[in-house]
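Re-running ANTAR domain-containing protein to confirm reproducibility after the cluster update. Everything else is unchanged from the original entry.
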Amino acid sequence: MIGRDEQTTDQPKALREEVAQLRQALASHALIDQAIGVVITVSRLRPEQGWDVLKHISQHTNTKLREVARCLVEWPARGTLPDVIRGALPAAVEHARTRTGAAGREDDLEVRCGRPG
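Result of re-run:
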């Protein structure tokens, strides 16, 4: 059994760890929101569809969601995406469009997947 002194000593450490986790979650959330913005702008989707695109790419490429988000946020500045994400993006966009019943232009998607904007 943990004594009161041990709990008091462990509390600041636990609070520091929790603060670090919350900061990481906040940073990840902001990055994911930015990536959704890139996806919805480039693919002309609604925000909930952009979220679906990120999830679809992550799940179908076995890539962490925040890594997919980072790559998408950096895409406009770099002018390119990693091959695995670039390859998965059209299917993810199509999946999001058909899932929500939104019409999209295939030719527009083909042009935009190589370079943003």
